[in-house]
Give the backbone structure.
Amino acid sequence: MNRLDALRGTTPPKPHDARAIAALAANPGCARRALLDGAGIDKDATARHLGFPAPFGQSPFAITRGNAFEALVKADGCAELLRMLREVLELPVAEVAYHDVENVGAHLRHTHTRALIDRAARDEHDSGTIYDHPLLGLEIAGHTAYLEPDVVAFQLGGRFHIVEIKSFAVIDGQADPAAVAAAARQAAVYVLALRRMLRELGHDPLRVAHDVVLVCPENFANRPVATLVDVRRQLAVLERQLSRMTGLDRLVEGLPEELTFDLLPGEDGLPTRPAAELADALRRTTARYAPDCLSTCDLCFFCRDEARQEGACDLLGRQVRDELGGVASAEEALGLADGSRAPAEGQEEIARLLRTAERLRRECLA
Amino acid sequence: MSLLTSLARLRALEEGIAQPIATVRHCHLAERPMVLIPLRMSGEAAAPLAALLGTRRDDPRLLVVTQPRNRDLRFAWAADLAAELLPYIGSFLAGTETVERKNSDPYERVLDAPQILVPNQAGIAFIRLLGRSTRFRRAHGPYPVPPTVPLLGRWLTYFGERATHPGSSLMTAVTEELGRHWASGQSGLEDANLAALTAWITTGPSDDAEDPLVWPPAGPATDPGFDAEVLAPAIEAGAAERITEALRGQLEPTWRLMWQAVDLLRELPEGASVEQRWEQDRGSFSAMAQHIAEGAPPQARRDGAVAAASRLARMERAQAAYEVQRAYDDPLVMAEYRLTGEAFAGEVVETEPEHSEGEGRSRKLRPLVVVKTDDPVRLAPGTALGTPQRRAQGAQLVEARDGLVTVKITKGMGRGKTPAPGSVPEVGERVCYTSLTDDFQGSPALPEAEATPWTHGGPPREYAPSDEDALEEWS
């Protein structure tokens, strides 16, 4: 059995979605996350079983609004979307064909998408087509992840565009930068998947535009507005990340033979593995906790707890960690500051700074 | 964040309680601040759900939109909010003073100004959006709204924009202010949680702070679990009473935290420059009130090129001044500059109070002071210096060697042959000098808006209120 599959054990694999793949890029140094994701482990279920449920959830109101907005954009064979594409891509689109890939059975969708894209790429005619509900595949660490986006691929004149529909508002031409960044990271995953598909089919991958069309509600109404977002930077990060993921073999090699993160689901699907045992198993892998994990990784509370027990400087954020370059724990840093600890080689400079800082604080607070 | 703050965070982590990073309060704190906790409908850009507000801790006012999808109720809510905020704002307009200006007409400045306290930055962003969604409405024509609604929108927009002005206290996020005075043992990201940060400062960290059942989020986003299990069923059932009580339950814990934060900040003595910055706030507020009284149109959706450039320049100058003033007001902030070698403090070991330069009529007093310091001085000879101990004086670094720094006082010595008593530090006195100075910087020369060059889009179109603005959907 594949070592990664052994890590997952009898628990069914959790398919990656674009959000998860995008989040991989957020914390490249985390071996724990790389292993869990590589093995297709359900991190959310794992965290809940460990007693550290993830702090994020989505409000039913937000979900309802998101769905309603998507339905609006896609209504009548994407009529509204077409209007915006004409504007934003400045294309003289007379009419376009509309393919809803979902009309075929779920198991055929990926093959069907592939066939449709292949045909479009070969097509001599300059006819536009909108592909709704395509299913793209992307290989992650030896496993194919199927990406099922609320995304539409639009093809015209041999160029493909990824369209991403999001329900956060663009107000007077401005949107929440964090939301836009997240959408761009996610869209980059689709661009990459579509590019790889084209390459496999023997076409030029660059026929997929690096400008994605982001569709959001405008101002306070439900009226959609489209904007082009350049995702080249996100693509570069993602590709670098994914190529590193192939290095999973090396991470696996360092692990004990019998190690597994199996939840041992019972007949009712609920985990039967003793939580303490699972926690011990996880601690055999190295995490790289950073406060940013709190918004991107299901396991964040578990890793934060671990960092707290170790008194790691990582708890305080990347900035503090960088400032203390080479000093890993709070105890060590404080020891250097009050002089009770001699600096190791290479720590002389930071130790001198910490001692001065400590003296200044004492003087000012006396 | 500086290494000094990082060290304080580490200490907080070890001792299990937040550590001070300021010895004085760097923000103005009004006698009767308006505490305002807004809640937004999840998934919507700026649809209000509720607000708890008031100037007295034992008398909060709860405003609720009992059917968040109903447009009329939303405007009624905005009118209710206006009925609370506009009288509060208006109560400051009565007492004014006349301020004389060089090269310009005198103007009237209010003696005191309103102060709105919200829990966090996200709350401020939401208030700005509320302002944006209401300021273009109209009391007449199609879809009329109560006349107080567009007026409220203009004020909310003003307060929201002023909150980005460095050092302003007209509207501030309480977590930001607490974080400027205490270092917790958690990350800056987690400091945005009011319950968690207050716990670090008062009793030590508590996991309860992140449990939405114990401490509901301080807004404007609600807890998704609350939305799913309490709010959605109540809205479905159309039970206005149930919705109101549920939202009160979500807001009241934060209300208590807000006043606890006010108490914490009030315990700190006010920094010396706070008064001066508050004076600028009063001036800015007066100008806004004047604008409205003169019937100027609502603020534009976006700044034109000239307006944006001048706003940016204003904010940069305010930021620089704010940083310098905080360092001069607070030895613990100045310590950050001492750590980087831009300031030094120590004991005066030698003086030459009657040292002078020049001859005859151009003879000037230039006293010399030698300071013994342990600080790592990284300043070149000739660097201009200032000192918190004698703010009107200017000095120059002559030489720094082996922990002894010679300083020459170059400004503020007067015309006398001998220095006025107390103007030159005595041997044994502790002094601090820094290259950080709050030199007045003129505003950049920018063209008039009508003369905006074509490279910047040409003159911006004059804003003309239109029916379209007033009709804008708010769903």
